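Repro case for the chain-ordering regression, as requested:
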Amino acid sequence: MSGKPRLHYFNGRGRMESIRWLLAAAGVEFEESYLEKKEDLTKLQKDGSLLFQQVPMVEIDGMKLVQTRAICNYIATKYSLYGKDLKERALIDMYVEGMFDLNELLMTYEIQPAEKKEQHFANMMDKAENRYFPVFEKVLKDHGKDFLVGNQLSRADVQLLEILLMAEEFKPDILAKFPLLQSFKARLSNIPTIKKFLQPGSQRKPPSDEDIIDKTMKIFY
Amino acid sequence: MSAKPKLYYFAGRGKMESIRWLLAAAGVEFEEEFLETRDQYEKLLQSGSLLFQQVPMVEMDGMRMVQTRAILSYIAAKYNLYGKDLKERALIDMYVGGTDDLMGFILMFPFLSAEDKEKQRAIIVQKATSRYFPVYEKVLKDHRQDFLVGNSFSWADVHLLEAILMVEEKKSDVLSGFPQLEAFKARISSIPTIKKFLEPGSQRKPVPDDKYVETVRRVLRMYYDVKAN
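-- result from build under test --
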């Protein structure tokens, strides 16, 4: 196992993208092994690398970690992106779980059958604008600080930026009613490690197009 | 806010049950407010107590916590059920992720049509016996210790026991072929706090029935058809 973490997933965002964001934000270089055909997944399953036969899987520090949350929790703790005490961690967890729920909606849009897409889109935009974004706008408004929790960068900030950008891909003016989220977005995007990740040529993955979805469905289903 | 944690949810299992289990396992007494009417729920929404307008919500230590995983992680850490270091925590998180996924197949079960229920029952049993139980069976077999992680009682053990009992409700002999899990189940069930929780009269909730489904639908105005995942 090399010194750097190695990510095992298909060449797309999915559930691995939040992990890429966290590692990048922490300034940790990582390698990736892409699953391209069903045999790639079967091979990993057969050699016992995947605890529950699923990806994401990340080789890190002598472990083969699976389960997105377990991986994110480990990275966040290791690189001091998880608050300074139990209460800050609780806040971070609450925020991040809310973002996870919204991410599920955004992530599953492309795989909706044609007749359900419109309703799914309306629902996810409604949740973003009326359930989730107002919460984070208010958090920033109430404490007036640069970061969501404890006046320092945490995984909550990284994951919020990730989801703001993804939502904008669906609806470019979605942040119109959220001035603090707009300035949060600008501010976080300027953090050197994040700025680097946002540049072309980084390991950030583009939104999945029809081709990628097709290919992925063939590997996993 | 009282000194004891206060749980806000329906009088049924749903997403709150794992929280009840963990508090009980830790020997923590808690109170519950049960949502029975739409009015109650709207009041709760208007009071701003629900960060994302959802339950479960748990009032504890001056916070109104939401998001099941956030609540469980907090309780586990507070009551020393989260391992002794980062690596143990990673193992616990992985194992809990698995049992969470397994129980996820059961979560919506009560809301399914009769036909879908039969299909889902088969899926639950298949996932349990081919994907999840073998993992925990092997963990226990390989290290020969009483508990899943670090030779010490943790959230992972509580969560696994909960999952085992839930799957057994769908197929009573589902543990045949898993001798380590049989022994684990007996062992963990006899831990005093857990034994107490398993006795009649505890705050453990029964298998969800039609009345529970009706209550949830009414309170959340969730009248659409639910399909299995």
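Ordering looks correct now. Residues 6-79+198-220 of chain B form a domain with the Glutaredoxin fold (CATH 3.40.30.10).
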